[in-house]
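forwarding from the other thread:

> can someone predict this with magnesium ion?

sure thing
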Amino acid sequence: MCLLLGATGVGKTMLVKRLQTILPRWLCSRDGKGDLGDPPLTRPTVGTNLTDIVAQKKITIRELGGCMGPIWSSYYGNCHSLLFMVDASNPTQLSASCVQLLGLLSAEELAEASVLILFNKIDLPCYMTIEEMKSLIRLPDLIACAKQSITTVEVSARKGTGLSDVLRWLQDTHRTNG
Ligand SMILES: Nc1nc2c(ncn2[C@@H]2O[C@H](COP(=O)(O)OP(=O)(O)OP(=O)(O)O)[C@@H](O)[C@H]2O)c(=O)[nH]1
Ligand SMILES: [Mg+2]
């Protein structure tokens, strides 16, 4: 099981919809590029949303809506990997996201999980660069101190940028178990 978490509106549902769209061509050519068509409409996820990504093995991604934040922890069990999404176009949300991330990294049940932090919406202009945001939340220190293995990736779920890296990470992370 892979958990997909992050504040409301960062683009989690868009990500899973787009991953499903690019999966067939990624499996053929290891390339997620090409026209993805119009971005699908999304609504705020009230509750949870399960999506199966079937590559070499089936990986179930469980999105929890941002509004479910207070009860995210009841879903930590059996979580092999964690996708944590941040809206790279919205630095004002960053400190709240950082607090959420710290809570996740210190949770006993997630100590063994591999973590991928996604900076989404890189297609939008922003007054702060991703490097500046990373240093603002002291991400290098977090990565050095965390029990989990942490990777970061910059994506646009809307445009498809970086999504083949996400699929590769999922496949590598779930190769052995989970
Ligand atoms: N420009 C841009 N917009 C995006 C991107 N990803 C998502 N969005 C938009 O952001 C809004 C929220 O997207 P959702 O996928 O519903 O967000 P969510 O994280 O699932 O939100 P909750 O389910 O409420 O927690 C929608 O209007 C999307 O079209 C992106 O990469 N670029
Ligand atoms: Mg959603």
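The chain has five helices and six strands. thats all i got for now
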